[in-house]
Amino acid sequence: MKLLVIEDETDLQDVMVASLEKEGFRVETAGDYAAALRKIGAYDYDCILLDIMLPGGNGLDLLQRLKDLGKSESVIIISAKDSLDDKVRGLDLGADDYLAKPFHMAELNARVKSVLRRKSFGGQPFTSVGNLRLQADERSVWVLDQPLPLNRKEFDVLAYFLLNPNRLIRKTSLAEHVWGDHADAADDFEFVYSQIKNLRKKLKACGASVQIQAVYGMGYKLVVA
Which residue, 123, 148, 172, 218, is most buried by CB atoms nearer than 10 A? Predict the structure, then answer.
């Protein structure tokens, strides 16, 4: 899962990033309105943590921009302004939650996981395709009753496919989602192919009923065998 932290307080931003990465999330950052606007216009995220008061602009205007662009990211507003008007406007604009500063990192992590469950897994902490079951919170995968050991990138790749079953996933989209915003500028996608190759072997060895099929010249698709 890929997150964007829009926060101008450097110390707080660093703590948030460290805490979220410890939970297994990929995290990008923006420290002002202009940088945030570029990020949301160019890339897709699973969840955006959005401060209201930013250098160069207002976070609620970014929320309106997301709405205008038809983006589907979950948004948690994070602000020292514990104003009812700001909270109501933010929720009206499509924000999923509102967290007032100061807050504990444990609460932040719980809020992020909650909105991601609502968005991705219909409120459940897991998703199942065929005989494969992925536990998002625990970052674990099971085939029938047997655990499937995966490294961090393999888990992220498989999770992305499971959220998009039977859909064509282009290499550039997969690279951006799992490896970061600048991965689409890579000269080749050998790093994507390597993870897909290893993941295919592990799925086959454990008897998984899902397969990752190559779509020549375009990308990959997850199908139930």
Answer: 148
Q: Do the beta carbons of residue 177 and residue 2 sit within 8 Å?
A: yes
Give me the chain's average pLDDT, please. Answer: 86
Nearest-5° angle of CA 70, CA 27, CA 197?
95
From 116, 95, 100, 103, select the one nearest 23 (Cα to Cα). 116
Where are the extended beta strands (E) located within 112-225?
126-129, 132-135, 140-143, 146-147, 169-170, 210-215, 219-224
11: Cβ contacts below 8 Å, ≥ 6 apart: none
Reported as a pLDDT band with limits 50, 70 and 90, residue 124 is low
34-57 pLDDT tens trace: 999 999 998 889 899 999 989 999
Which CATH number, 3.40.720.10, 3.40.190.290, 3.90.550.10, 3.40.50.2300, labels domain 2-120?
Answer: 3.40.50.2300
